[in-house]
Design a protein that fits this description.
SpoIIE family protein phosphatase; PPM-type-like_dom_sf; about 525 residues; membrane; WG_beta_rep; six-stranded antiparallel sheet; 2 domains; transmembrane helix; 26 strands
Length: about 525
């Protein structure tokens, strides 16, 4: 099968950020109809050089593809390319330790004789449209998608969720290799569109709007400009995209490369939706491996595209239904009971330690990778290798918050509760009255009379009365165990006692599989939120 494309059209704009951390490949204006692969990456990290991360990614993948050409881009092939890119991240971080915390999402479209391969990491997306309709798209690696899939929150709640900007995978180096989701698409036809974009585009462009624009009779240049006009001066984030239309297809897909079509069902859209949120299976962390053989037929060598100059380093409530009958009331009660049981099941499942061989996840808010410890307080072994995080306990406990009692309180101890507000989590007493005036992003479960909390993206601890025991000053913090907790501050890992004082590290901690406590998603990240960080 030979795939011919029309002139590819790419764009990348700074939007409402102080600098542009997105990178697209090829550079806007440099793509030709002979180009086989396209990338859109959204840098993460702000002052931690998110733009450098996205640049290293697009250039690193391009170099690998040019130097290691293949007939079909399979999962194994792309994983090798990703490993190479992560090695480049590690090398850069060795030479620039101040950049620890940089990371990037990835969307990749690769045309070949089996059709096209799509790979992605994070919440940037790839759409496949035909006759003005979305027929497939990637699924965001985001926390709200997991919560929606688990039935914890609704689509309306997802749009206003305090952690809606958290993603769960990113390329960052310094950790176990992250895995991309990979899908080979055999069914591509003349006239089909592929649209790769960062989440900044999705601030203003919904699935419906995209369908209307790409289904119109305008030229591709006009369609591109319409999408740009939807975002210019209206987005808080950088916004970047590539629009690629299939011109012609010659020949058939070789039998060895035939794969099942992807399963896709678009969620029902909200009438006023401007941000499209898609549900994703929370257990789906390892992409399926295509069982294919590489052909030996040589393919023409693709000339590398001129590299982009590396940027200079820089420090950079939903109305209730009208209940008028006992039958309806009983139905709702039964539904709530089912949700409660399901919520408990999900919570208990989430609290289990990570099994060996699980694909790792990276939690990242739209301006940083969210380095949070595991929910059970026991981090995986091999602290020097670093691993990636799972959503924190407070997030999963939101199950109780969403389907729980009228007061919305979640018990922490016998006399201490937490309650979620628009600003975050607050501490309340048994009557629901707030204790103190502090608001936290995260409040975890008690462990040895200490409760880990996050405030202003820094971790600390409170006691069982809700009083500050150790100030919020750590980039990451584990639960207490055997009288001490493992923390990270300013890139340094060490243990502290219940007063917050450093304690000497025991030699067995780094050697014992049961006691070593690496931190997920390292390197440590600077405190930032999507709304106010300088970049992304």
């Amino acid at each position: 099968m030979n795939v011919f494309i029309q002139q590819p059209l790419g764009y990348s704009y700074q939007g409402g950020r102080s600098n542009n951390e997105d990178n697209i490949f090829p550079v806007a204006g440099e793509a030709t109809v002979g180009q086989r692969w396209f990338m859109v990456c959204d840098g993460v990290g702000g002052a931690a050089r998110g733009e450098i991360a996205s640049h290293i990614a697009v250039e690193g993948f391009n170099d690998y593809f040019v130097q290691n050409q293949t007939e079909v881009a399979t999962s194994d092939y792309l994983q090798l390319a990703l490993d190479s890119v992560q090695a480049q991240f590690d090398d850069y971080l060795t030479r620039h330790p101040e950049a620890h915390g940089m990371a990037t999402t990835l969307t990749l479209l690769f045309f070949h004789e089996a059709g096209a391969t799509v790979a992605h990491i994070g919440d940037s997306r790839v759409y496949h449209l035909r006759d003005g309709n979305v027929i497939w798209r990637t699924e965001d690696h985001s926390l709200v998608n997991q919560l929606m899939k688990a039935g914890v929150i609704t689509r309306e709640e997802a749009r206003e969720h305090p952690q809606r900007n958290v993603i769960e995978r990113a390329i960052q180096g310094g950790s176990k290799a992250v895995k991309p989701d990979v899908q080979i698409l055999n069914d591509i036809r003349p006239g089909d569109y592929f649209f790769l974009c960062t989440d900044g585009v999705l601030e203003r462009v919904s699935d419906e709007l995209l369908e209307n624009v790409l289904g119109s009779k305008e030229s591709n240049e006009q369609k591109k400009q319409t999408l740009i006009d939807c975002c210019i001066g209206k987005t808080k984030d950088n916004f970047s995209a590539y629009l690629v239309q299939i011109d012609a297809i010659r020949g058939d897909v070789p039998e060895a490369y035939r794969v099942s079509a992807p399963i896709y069902a678009r969620p029902q859209a909200l009438p006023d939706e401007t941000i499209a949120v898609v549900a994703v299976d929370s257990k789906r962390t390892v992409p399926a491996q295509e069982n294919v053989l590489f052909q030996t037929t040589p393919i023409p060598k693709v000339d590398p595209i001129k590299k982009q100059p590396l940027l200079d380093d820089r420090e950079n409530d939903k109305p209730r239904p009208d209940i008028n009958s006992i039958v309806l009331l009983l139905t709702i009660a039964l539904f709530a009971a089912v949700l409660t049981v399901g919520g408990i099941y999900v919570y208990n499942w989430w609290k289990q330690p990570a099994e060996a061989g699980k694909a790792e996840q990276v939690a990242a808010d739209h301006g940083k990778v969210n380095n949070r410890p595991r929910t059970d307080g026991k981090l995986p072994p091999n602290s020097t290798k670093k691993t990636t995080p799972i959503p924190d306990a407070a997030t999963v406990e939101g199950i109780t918050q969403t389907i729980g009692g009228e007061d919305g309180k979640i018990e922490i101890t016998r006399n201490l509760y937490k309650k979620q507000t628009e600003s975050g989590w607050i501490l309340v007493n048994e009557k629901g009255r707030q204790k103190g005036d502090k608001v936290y992003e995260v409040i975890r479960e008690p462990s040895e009379e200490r409760i880990a909390v996050m405030q202003n993206n820094k971790w600390g601890y409170i006691n069982l009365k809700g009083q500050t025991a150790i100030a919020c000053k750590f980039d990451m913090a584990d639960d207490f165990e055997d009288g001490k907790a493992h923390v990270v501050r300013n890139g340094k890992e060490y243990d502290i006692d219940k007063k917050g004082e450093p304690v000497k590290e025991t030699p067995s901690r780094a050697e014992s599989e049961n006691h070593s406590k690496p931190f997920d998603g390292t390197p440590a990240l600077p405190p930032a939120t999507k709304g106010d960080e300088p970049g992304r």
